[in-house]
Amino acid sequence: RPSDVTRPHDAYFSALNSLLRSEGPGHPVLLVDRQRLLENVDVLARSVGPDKTYRVVVKSLPSIPLLKAVMDRARTRALMVFHQPFLNLVATELPAADVLIGKPLPVSAVRRFYAQLAPGAFNPAEQVQWLVDTPERLEQYQALARELGIHLRINFEIDVGLHRGGLPEAAALQPLLATIASDPKHLSFAGLMGYEPHLTGTTDVDVPAAQAVLESYRGFVDVARAAGHDPARLTLNGAGSHTLRLYERDTLLNDLSAGSGVVKPTDFDTALLDDNTPALFIATPVLKRYDRLTAPISKTVTDLMQWWDPNRRRLYFIYGGYWKARYVSPSNVPDPIYHSTNQEPLSTSEAVGLEPDDHVFLRPTQSEFVMLQFGDLRVVEDGAFVDRWPIFVPTA
Fold first, then answer.
1. What are phi and psi of 152, to 5 degrees?
2. Which has the closest alpha carbon to 25: 289, 268, 388?
3. Which of 10, 40, 52, 391 sits most deeply, having the most CB atoms within 10 A of its CB?
4. Cis peptide before 330 (omega within 30 of 0)
5. pLDDT category, 346, cuts 50, 70, 90?
6. Which of 62, 71, 6 is closest to 30 using CA atoms?
7. Alpha-carbon span 261 to 274, nearest angstrom
8. Burial of 316 per CB tally in 10 Å (0-12, 13-18, 19+)
């Protein structure tokens, strides 16, 4: 028989609940704890170290003020961008940024970027590295560069074990470098990107799987060096929040990416992020409270469930629900009897004494999609609202 494990808000969430009762908007919001956020940036920046570049992943932190806060704290201007409309926003709002594209974009997206590029200080010929994964895409990009009379810096996606595309082996790099060398007016070689999330859960770079990634990466670097390129002058990118700490003792990669670890959604509750603290929460009001379990099923069944499980003795309906998120406070709540995006039911034990207009808190499972669902991020610090950070609303 289940034991009584659900618990009311602790001091941290009680303070947030009081703040939201008095100053909240009365609908679901996404909270960012600025102190925790900045402490997480410090943790990641220390892992990157002074001899490598910390590249902030934009899709995971889709807000210009949020990105500015992270970049300022980490003292970096390096970004990884995955979406053409976001790239145009970055070019306008963060004109000093050094951008590496995080996935190979269709050539039509590259064309659209240049068509929508507003006049300003951002110079894509120097500040953007376009990711290329195949000879065919390089040919497309070269043709566009010739057509528009522009110069494109090319970074090659390499397969270091994820098997999601990219150059499959080091030998495939050589003819592509020759193509670039034959057209210096329109193309230049900027570096390599080898993503390795299959190492998630690995805790040491000396384990065989991590060593295989580095050995594969090193083969591509050797081909580049043999073609006359100095690795020290290239962007040799890898990692993500899950794996960044693996490379603290590595000297091959010089450019490490991380985004979600700054706010630590639940998917990032992994060993290498133990020093990071959750800094992102959905807060949603309680609409209704019942001191018995009710559901659109037989009363006999709900009575039995309530008798059997002490964590289903009290029932709340919240504003909204069914997000990519997990309940964090009240804690240890059982799975909802059913899901609803309008008014989700939440069962607890009698130890939880929330009332209508109190708030329930959830942790997103990931940041990049959830952050786009709630409007402005509400920034809290020391028990007070201190700012509102607009999220990306890209033009089509």
1. -115, 130
2. 388
3. 40
4. yes
5. very high
6. 62
7. 10
8. buried
